Batch of 4 targets.
Target 1
Amino acid sequence: MKRLLGPLTAALLLSACSQTPTTVPPRTVDLGARLSLPAVQTFAGTWSVEEASLPAWLTVSPLGGTGDVRLTVTADRARGTRAAADQATLSGQITVVWQHGAESGRTTWTVTADQYTLTGRVVDAAKVQGADVGTRAATTPAPAPEARGVIVKYRSAAAQSVALGRDVPAVRLGEAAQERTRGALARLNVPAAERRDLGGRAVRLETGDVEAALRTLRADPNVEYAVPNAVLRAQGLAAPVVPTDSYAGLQWAYRLLGYGSVWRDMEGGAYTRPVTVAVVDSGVRYDHPDLEGQLYGPGDGALDVLGFRAAGTDVSGYDNGDGDGPDLDPTDPDTPGRTGGSHGTHVSGIIAARWGEIRQACPECSTSGVVGAAYRAPVRVLPVRAIDAQGDAEIADVALAVRYAAGLPVTLEGKAFTNPHPAQVVNLSLGGDVDAETAQPLCDAVADAARAGALVVAAAGNGSGTRPFYPAACEGAVAVGSVTLSGASAPVRASYSSVYPQVALAAPGGVNPQDATFFGGGTLNGQPFPDLIFSTEWDYAKDQPTYLAESGTSQAAPQVSALAALLLSKGVTTGREDTLARLEATATDLGAPGRDDQFGFGMINAAAALGAPAVSDTLGVRVQDARGNAFQPALDPLGRFSAFLPDGTFRVVGGRDRDDNGVYGEANEPRAEGSATLGPGRTSAALGDLTPQP
């Protein structure tokens, strides 16, 4: 019996080792620097992956099967990287649900992925950052200050008198000494009229060649010293204008565009030219107190182009909402049972809502409300109603409205109408996913308006995909995409904003409410306020004015229209072409370098476009990838940063923020730029020093 024991034991052990597991055990899948990795676990039953439990940055395929668990795990690191770029490793979990016979269970697999590393340093050219930059600072000469002529101090009052062209007796200053001083001034060719007595034996001399003047004067024995008449400037910054209206703190878009600086500039009085912005939309509520005095009214160019067909006159029974046809009153009507808001009122408030105290329209209504971009500039909104009370607009009506807004005559139901205030800017916060052939009448109207000198600004669409929206995609229109806050210096494309080649510019339109973020920092009724666009609205249920947070390219377009109007009002530009060129040239480039389908030429920059004064002066860095993601690594006291990033091609801008919008190195600010591509083939990169220059 003892001789049989050994072989029997061995057979039992062999059988146990070859048995297929009847459960799925926990495990760790370490991607390291890889983008994807197969993971295999022997198993004899059926299994599935809970897709809903996957973190956003992980995808798994297949999601189920029978037998061995064979998964391919793929990391989209960009979806898991925080704006601060401060995680060296991403970690997430996969839940595997399994069943073997009567047994079942849930098992967690942990997935880890190393981030890629980008390092560098932002070096302030104006300041020594630390002991290790001493050599650089010492060997880089500071730029010479601007000088307007020279100041020379003479050793005696008599010599000063000679320099000023006065007669001096020889007994006070020898003839030879007088000749030396006169000769020096003669060689400098500084006429007597350009010599100014500064007192204390000093003279200011107007001369263009400062260096030559200093050499000549310092060689005169009668001169005590000669120095440049250097230009000194105020060292303090202008303070940004911060409106005090009740809800102004929720209007983060204006700060992002640098309006604190613009409004300070506006108080200098340079914005004097009247500008009309036509808002072709659902009409407007003239009885909203925050819009009083900001709109052209009935009988003053405002127009409703919508026709009216009473119920029973055709198969649609169409009623545009106000009970009549085209007329001079584009009020957004209060139809029975209406509960939605007034789209045109929301858009108009972004451009031109009043500042300061307003009429209180109801006991619970605000007495100051919101603010509009126009502030003190003479910019007025011309409402043109082309969207009915159901929120629909016909191509024919919009085409008529665009032509009318631009000052072209139109005929409505046999009656001719001509706009007495042709709009320099036409805002179209509307559009549709129609094909180019169907949209041709719209595009013809946009072309006519452009030839008439109007800049037509249109919402690029909220389709999130790549299909063009019209009329934004029409030649001659300015298609505006939407950006929102990211938690980093640079904003990002709003997820709903359509992406296609005709997108020309981007502007704040707010976050998709389904993915609400709260980077703006505002609070409303004690609760954090999401990054939406807050503006004037109408409560049709209560029939009273209100304010509402909305998001969309409809909210982005009027940001561009408002800035275009301010360029014209200040006289920075004078017409359609140079206004568009200025908007594009001063935009903050986002995403891939240059124009791209997400952002066009970039996010508009009001402070840069209008040449507004500096209201801040901070040093920082912004990191963006070609997909449009934004990251904000911290700088240490020496300006160094280490960013843990996903795979991709990155632009790194070190720069100063001078318009207090938190975005470093824009068109009007000192900047230095570097780039690097990271991924499995290059897991780290060092950019070295970035020294912002004007």
Target 2
Amino acid sequence: MTRERCSTDDELKTAGAGRQVLNDELTAMNARLIDRVRELETTNEVLDALLVGTEVPVLFVDPRLRVRRWTPATETLLRPGGGEPGCPLADLGWRLEDAELVDEVAMVLAGTPVVPREVPGDGGQWFLRRIRPYRSGTGQIDGAIITWTDITARKLTEAAQADRDHALSRLTDALPVLISQVDASLRYRFNNAAYARWFGLDPAEIRGRPVVDVLGEEAFALVRPRMEQALAGSACRFDAWLPYQGAGTRCCQIEYIPDRRDNGTVDGFFVLVIDITERRRNAEEIARLNAENRARAGELRAVFEAAPVGIYIGRDLECRNMDMNRAGAEILRLPEHSNPSLSGPDATALPFRVFHAGRELSTDELPMQVAAREGELVHDFHEELHFADGEVRHLIASAAPLRDETGEVGGCVGILADVTRATRAERRYRETLERLKLHVDKSPVASLEWAADTSLLRWSTAAERVFGWSEVEALRGSLRGLGLFPDDEREPFADMIGALVGGLVEHNQALHLNRRKDGETIWCEWHNSVLRDADGRLVSVLSLALDVSGQQALQTSLRRQAEQLAEADRRKDEFLSMLGHELRNPLAPVRNALDRLALGETDQTTLDWALGVIDRQTHHLERLVHDLLDVARITRGAIELKMARQDLGRLVREALEVVECEARARGHALALDLPPGAVVVRGDATRLVQVLSNVLHNAVKYTDRAGRIAVGLVEEDGVARVTVADDGRGIPPDSIPTLFEPFTQGPRSLARVEGGLGLGLTLVKNLVGLHGGSVALHSDGVGHGTRVTLTFPLDAGPAPETDVGPGAAAGDDAPGEGRRVLIVDDSPDVVEAASELLRALGHEVSGGASGAEALEAVSRVRPELILLDIGLPDIDGIEVARRLAERPERRAFRLVAVSGYGVSSLGEEAALFDAHLLKPVGVADLKRLLE
């Protein structure tokens, strides 16, 4: 306890020492503050003395717009009793007119600077008022300072100067001369009203502005050297065309007079401008007209000499004395300076005579003599000059009387244009047109010309052939009147005419259905072009029409074929989708059965189930593949039929046996109506059973459970007719025409309960057609069943004796004598699977994966049967067969081709093999070969 008390005492002593140190510091700080206050008091006394002693009115305002203090001089601006320090600024009574004072002080206190303002006093004085903020030590605005500077003397001076300037302005404004004063910085100090009007400005707008802004840079650049000369002290006077900015290009007489002070310094210059534009232009115009007259006289002389037409001038009323230019002399075949007048003194020596319309003209009938005598113009008078050497020239003459200043005729001027070449060219042109008309008339293209109202102007012989109307009949009517365009073509016809006549197009092309005179309609391709005169008015339209009915029929056929191809392509795409679906359906149970067997521990029931699934689905896959191959063979024309006389009734029964299990599983009732005797046809029994089973299979598949299917066979009119009718789902009538196309089925959903590739009816139609028969399909619609009728030609003669059908077994299941078999295939799985099957049948089997292995194994194994794949990796099966044919042991074995393609794909090389099998090869095929 004593120790704790001692510790507390020590802490108290320590705290007391700290307080003593703090008291010492506070004492020192207090002394400093006292010194600072004394300094501030001294400063404040100095400031007070300054404010009291200044003659400038100054007023201090705090942030609340209350007056803090003012200088004594400020009281001269206040009315007696106008206020006191501490009152609001707005309450002060001023001898000034300053309504904005309070607002502008508030702006300064808010941090917005204001410009100084001139304010008047009520005693005629003027003051320049300024407002400044003053800030505290922290930089914040702590108030505002207002000062007033007396500017009364300056305002009086300015007013006197304004009076003098006004008097000067009135004097200078009365003068027509442009007057201005420019300072040394090239700015306007003064200008009169005429100067401002000249530039289209107000006088106040010019004063103080740079000279370049008013004159414009281009004019300023031209006069600046003269201005600098005036600023240097030299007066100058000059005339110049100047492109003024506001007054346009003007010609002016300008004088610059230096503005000197008493000490000789130049402060600027005076400008005197007199607009002499009109005077200068008049002088220039007179000079220009004189020059033009001289030039025109020269030009006329030059034209007279250089003109390509003959020009003749008669100096008297009888045109006895005439001058002519060089071209005129050449036309008349005379020397240039001779007298060409036929009424002149040298007329008998002239080498030509003048004719008109086949008659020689007398002197008085010549165009120049007529114009001079009658005082009238003569235009486009056709003449022929006949020269002594037989040359004839064609001319066009014009003449006009020459009158003096009193209007009296004193002579004549004549012009001769040599149109010999043009006349001959026109003659050739007409001949060409005639030839062209003959060609156009012989052309298969109808040519017709028509006016804006569609009235016909020309109708070619080809048009007569194309449309049937004669030229006389057509030219009495119009395009509308002839009825060339049927009702459904009138709108396109109106559009075509409107575009041509309205000037929207100058030419167009269109295909139209046209009606001939006999009422037949034909397709014509029209090509139209517009001819217009120099003023753009329509003269006529030329139409060329070509009968393209044949081409249109061909194009229609091509479009139909394209649509059919597109539809076939669409069905192909659907078929590929269906094919993937149909191939996956049997593969799924096969895969499941194999997976179940792979699990092991299978009893006989499970094994039988798995084998049954694999067998059924494999047969289903075989049927799909065989259908595809059959369609391909039929399409290529490569299918082979083994034609023989067959009992069609027996084949119907065999087909029923094929579908009997499926029909029984669905609970269908089968009704069979066959004649008692044989119905003999000629055909391939296997293919006919395939046809019948396909039709029956469709009936079973598309009939709901517990349905009824009736099968009948009749013989009449030399044909056998098989009918299969069901009460199933039926077919929409619009779908029937396409059901016989490859890969086509009736309406179906994504569920695809029935499945199939849509090849059955295609095979039926083609196989029946190969037997010379036909197929008919009928349905009253969905839900009303379907009836299929197969018709075959009868074969005269007795019925076939054999009763063995295509479905009869080729042998029993008991294995025969063991054989040596060589299997060659590039797929190890195929070799292994076939080898296991053959060994199970009691045969000795060897395998190979290439053509080279096959050739080597033949000598080593000495097989009795070779199953040879055609597609091998090194050399194909055909080449292997070709090499084996050269060996002596070839007769000791049978060589069988195994391929996914039909035997027709082997071509001539099929003779190298003893037989041909399609993949996949079944056990029945192998047994048949081995036996």
Target 3
Amino acid sequence: MARIDSKVIFVTTSPRTPAKMIPEIELLNTHFAGQKWNTETQLAFMELLKEENFFNGEGANDPAFSARDRINRAPKSLGFVVLSPVISLTPAGLELVNSRRKDEIFLRQLLKFQVPSPFHKSSANSADFWVRPYLELFRLVRHFGSLKFDEVMIFGLQLVDYREFETIVEKINQFRIAKAQNEGNYKKFRAEYLDAELQQIYSADIASGKTKTRQTNDDSISKFLKTKASNMRDYADACVRYLRATGLVNISHIGKSISIVPEKIQEVDYFLEHTNREPQFIDNEKQYVAYLGSAETPALLTDNRELLEQKIKTEFPKIKIEKTATLQQLKDIFADELEKRKEQIITEQVTAIKDYRLFDDINSTFDQILANSLYDNPLMLEWNTWRAMTMLDGGNIKANLKFDDFGNPMSTAQGNMADIVCDYEDFGLTVEVTMQGGQRQYETEGEPVTRHLAKVKRETNKPAYCLFIAPNINEACVAHFYALHKMNISYYGGTSTIVPLPLTVFLKMVEDSHKASYVPEPRHVQRFFERSNELANSTDNEKDWYNGITQEALNWLTE
């Protein structure tokens, strides 16, 4: 049982991207179902995990702790796994692994997550929790129509008791009035408002002198409040990401706000009306585990046959519904139509991209990423690079990020494949992107990038290259990728041609393709990567190779 010391909403923050838990709980179930969850199985799980394509990380310092961090947090807290007396997936966990509509599975579990619970008990120093956090955050977004990320962070996280809902609503209203009346810059206004709220939330700690944080010996109030603000950013970010996994909310990356998808409002209103706001089975773990692990509760609009039929007729009026169709068959029909519509939207996007109609939009989005002005820069970098590669040249360009029902980017690639895979018939190309910089870039990206390229080589049985893009390229990555040009490693399918480029250089390549008097062809792409091989063989250090291939990129269409 975890003891919670938080004075604001407590939610799971690991994994940061909800979809990443899916292959991991499947791996756990496949190899360890029926076994005890102890140090031995935790170490064995991490050993298997490190061999999988979807794992980006090391888990080297304390593998058993890393295993618990991955499984005991979101997978257990959201009712996907049971770890006692032995390891197993719950019905909800099995549905998450096997269901086509995983967003619906996430939704059910988020609506049931509660504090307190038999898994999470409040400490004497924490808030007096009585809330289903995600349910109330949905209610808050629905009430206002749209919530800024700052509003979720500063006020939404204070909703530790659902009975205080109206109090939080009033706080947000007052904040908006004060913001409208403020003639100074917003950054300063926000900082002062946040500081005042933190002073109020942690007034007891401040009054009693309990301002020392775990990470430092500094017990100053300013350091204490700065740490609490950072924690709140992490919690708010996790809240938004997990809400997004349901497919029911839109994110405005520029405005940094969250709203209900217009076509999904009826579904949201349904569960807001019919889902019990009271925490359940607080002191009975057996009943709570059974309740939390159910794949059928709480009831959603799609569980009501009459309402589901109405929704299908409204969104897809051409579909004829047979009276003999079962509820599950109706759900499958609805899922099929949603998927067809999404694919059609993406196809139309690709056509517009290839015609250079979105050139200015793609360019401006990259500028916003470089300025760090979007809500989710890693996701937007992955999505916008897919758009740029689609526009850049011929070929079948596939993004492995998850799109929502309307073709909008929803979450980054799970990790078991490259971010983007390009098929040019005679050869392949993987594209990997990251916002990471410094040594962290090398530690988290170096080996997985190589592994993903090897996977494409193996699956296509033809030559393949890799383009690695980041705002800034770390020297360790340059050295690593240079060496792989020359090292014949059978595990990676021989030598690996991986070219790292700063985002600004890649932007120049995109601009050149737009300005060219002809449409770039796959041969131009292959020529660039073969030139990288030539430079690697003719230089005796990574710096000369990197400088050389960067110059080639800046002139990649010069005949």
Target 4
Amino acid sequence: MRKTDVRPWTPQWRERAETEMAWLEALLGGELLELHHIGSTSVEAIGWAKPVVDLLAVVRRVQTLDGLDEAFAQLGYEAKGENGIAGRRFYVQGGDRRTVHLHAFEAGAPQIGAHLQFRDYLEAHPERARAYGEHKRELAVRFADDDTHLYQEAKQPFVQRLVQEAEAWSAEMEAGGGLASGIPGDRDHAVGQSQTSGTEDDSDRTARRAQASSTVDGPSPASEKAAARLSADGSFVRPPRRSEEEMMALILGTARADERVRAVCLNGSRVNPLAPMDKFQDYDVIYLVTELDSYLADDSWIDVFGERVILQMPERMGLIPPEGRGSFAYLMQLADGNRIDLRLIPLEQAEAYLAEDRLTRVLLDKDSALPELPEPSDADFHVQPPRGSEFADCANEFWWVSTYVAKGLWRSEPLYALDHLNGPVRAMLLQMLDWQAGARHGFAVSTGKSGKYLDRWLPAESWQALLATYPSADSESVWTALLRMAELFGSAARDVAARLDLAYDEEEERRVLRYLLEVKEDAGQR
């Protein structure tokens, strides 16, 4: 049973409509005559709508679509047939949590004009649109826990009045020589657009547009846009990447429209002045919210951020222990290439959250309740100098586990050898290189996650030596990597010990190196 879900209007719905229309144009090609964004998500003045984008397709022959169910399925659409309206082909995207409805009619069908004049009437009369939106919102509250059919039935009398008003307005426009349906713009794609006036009704006008479209030479701009979404082999490619400005407008716009969100913060590399900027930077976003339960009751609210490639919710995973401590994260890789790591944190935890990370910037504070923060800094992530015991433990662990790698290679157990080489041995090597980078630069540097910035702070020859320690799976390659790691570790450890006046057990290093070479020689004689 689908529940009633009405949300504040967002420009994301128009963007989604544009994306879907381009994909559909590429799929339908010359069979498609017109494509329109209709329904409440197409009229900003309504202010409230269910988060389902409605599209209206006008085609040459509706029966042709019946042979394209598999192609529609590749775009995520489920074919529903006429679904109660004769002459229609109806498709839904999103399963039970619907995101797009596609209504397809053959040119000349009377429903086409009815849909368009209803939309255009509300666009031309924003006061009636706002009244409709408020009515929808009130009913959504009243029927929040009920089947959506009760909501639909309750709003029907109001809708019927609007339909009658739209019909009267359309007749007046046509009698006066105007058009009830304006020239298609951002919401409409039409092949061979043609507008007529006079006394013809909507269905006649739509049929005339269809006739005109069949005589136009060359693709429309919309068709060219759709063609650009096809690769050389004809397969579909991902939608265009939204800019940083568009993403931030979406993130903040969603928060502003939601009374439960009281503040928005940004963390991570996008607020780090020293981090390199590129298109793969995540949007590490925090919503400080009044409560979590209403969000977690239905995760479809995150659909506003766009089509996803994959979603992870760590707090619901058993294999990987969550780190949220009462918060909840939605990690979203979006189809356009952007990624949002969005964490919901209860408002009462705001003070503790703000104290955790100096790479934090407040973007929105509805209640002016958050303290003023210093400029973001990565100082909390700077390499820290080791204590003598830490330094000694790192060296001991490196040399101890190196013997496991040698044992695995002698036994011809490459997975065992590689697991220890690229696990504890490499972890200790990277730790020592971190300390070396810190010691060389006054411990005022950050080497980044997984040591990704080490090349900035190490000597060039050390960086190249590190890269040379990554082997393939054959035995000789792993032996070479192990001995290179041993050489690099010993060199870095002696440098750190000298700079920080620490004791390094060079005799331990010599004994283990001798052992490794003996095992290698023995393995070669087997």
